[in-house]
Write a structure and sequence with these properties.
Blueprint lengths: L2 H20 L5 H6 L5 H9 L2 H7 L3 E5 L2 H8 L5 H9 L2 E2 L5 H4 L6 E5 L1 H4 L9 E6 L5 E5 L8 E10 L3 E6 L20 H7 L3 H10 L1 H7 L5 E6 L1 H11 L4 H9 L2 E2 L5 H6 L2 E3 L12 E6 L2 E5 L4 E11 L2 E6 L17 H4 L2 H6 L20 H16 L2
Parallel strand pairs: 1-7, 8-14
Antiparallel strand pairs: 1-2, 3-4, 4-5, 5-6, 6-7, 8-9, 10-11, 11-12, 12-13, 13-14
Helix pairs in contact: 1-17, 9-10, 10-13
């Protein structure tokens, strides 16, 4: 490479390596630890496991409240799980720096919070209204609060552009939905959640085989469930009826993993995972794979796509699938289709497991190309240009 081109190229390399190393490198606990006036807020982010959720996300805005505001909240005697819902309303799945707050298009916007993304918020009650007010002030309020903005922007605490913004607001965002009594893990019922949100047929199979007891007993320590929707189960029933009772139980347990995994965690930690059906004699595992914005679960027999979130509230996460997961221990492995044929609408329509009503990808998570991947793409382009 000519020295002149090399001299031009090296600064690009340094910048891109810096970008790759610093992308998604935030820690909300450490950020707030530098500000004692937010110590209670910081403590409860950790206690409710929201701190880990914040640190996992690529783009996030935290609306912090000081110790006085937290003291007012805690005086109401809410359970830890209700406090989690309230605080998750203060975590926005988009980036809002102080500058952006004062440059909102048309002066007002609605943005989703982690409360909305968790699936725990009824309707659109997890959306936050941000509005520019007179005198350079900015107001915050929940979407279904009749336009009442009960909190004001106070100051910026920490900003890492387009990664994390931590802003102080004047008081807790008021929301009857977030403040409603929230069941703890032992009170969550898997089959009830499934039945109410499009997976009743799968729930009925769990109950009929007794597999629901295994699911239920794993909630306390962490559980992730992948449920084929009602239409998918309906198409699969002829094959299901040919299985023995033990095989039916194993198939159903194959759709759960004994740890909590948010959508973001699944997308960032691809690879083989064990399931509730895994034992010493049989693997009963599958591979989690990210394909762009899509999340797929791959067995040696079939590839299924996650199409939505029923609930994501640690320690329980439940996601919808467009196909039944078929373990190679029970079904004959088939040659994997090419990516193009796997995504072909015709192939999906021909499958007896297909449920065309569930082909919309879940949009709850805040996922995009991270800095490392962007840096490598840009680096490749620079290399190609300079070596020409």
């Amino acid at each position: 490479m000519p020295h002149s081109k090399l001299a031009l190229f090296l600064p690009f390399v340094s910048f891109l390596l810096f970008l790759a190393s610093t992308s998604h490198a935030h820690n909300i606990t450490k950020i707030l630890a530098q500000h004692p006036e937010f110590s209670t807020f910081n403590q409860y982010l950790t206690r409710t496991h929201l701190a880990a959720d914040i640190n996992r996300r690529l783009t996030i805005t935290v609306l912090a409240i000081d110790n006085a505001a937290m003291s007012s909240l805690l005086s109401k005697g809410y359970s830890t799980y209700t406090i989690r819902n309230i605080l998750s309303l203060h975590i926005l799945v988009d980036y809002f720096g102080a500058k952006k707050l004062h440059q909102i298009s048309k002066g007002s916007t609605l943005t989703s919070s982690v409360f909305q993304a968790s699936g725990a918020a009824p309707g659109t009650s997890g959306y936050v209204n941000i509005t520019d007010l007179k005198g350079g002030k900015v107001g915050f309020g929940v979407e279904n609060n009749d336009g009442h903005l009960n909190a004001r922007f106070v100051k910026s605490i920490k900003e890492i552009p387009y990664n994390i913004s931590v802003l102080q607001i004047s008081q807790v965002l008021s929301s009857a939905e977030a403040e409603a009594p929230t069941p703890g893990p032992s009170e969550l019922n898997v089959t009830t959640i499934l039945s109410k949100q499009g997976c009743k047929s799968f729930a009925d199979l769990l109950i009929a085989t007794g597999a629901d007891a295994t699911y239920q007993s794993n909630i306390e320590s962490g559980l992730t469930v992948f449920c084929p929707t009602d239409g998918v189960i309906k198409g699969f029933l002829p094959r299901y009826k040919n299985l023995t009772a033990p095989q039916k139980t194993s198939l159903l347990l194959y759709h759960g993993i004994p740890v909590y995994q948010s959508l973001q965690m699944l997308k960032q930690n691809n690879g083989v995972v064990n399931t509730l059906a895994t034992d010493r004699a049989n693997k009963y595992d599958f591979t989690v794979q990210t394909d762009g914005e899509d999340l797929t679960l791959e067995t040696k027999v079939v590839t299924s796509k996650v199409t939505g979130t029923l609930i994501d509230q640690e320690p329980l996460a439940v996601y919808k699938l467009n196909k039944v997961l078929l373990p190679s221990e029970l079904f004959k492995p088939t040659e994997a289709p090419s990516p193009k044929s796997a995504n072909s609408p015709g192939d999906e329509a021909d499958s007896p497991q297909a449920d065309s009503s569930d082909q919309t990808a879940d949009g709850n998570g805040a996922v995009g190309i991270n800095g490392g991947r962007l840096a490598m793409i840009f680096l490749s382009l620079c290399m190609g240009t300079l070596l020409m």
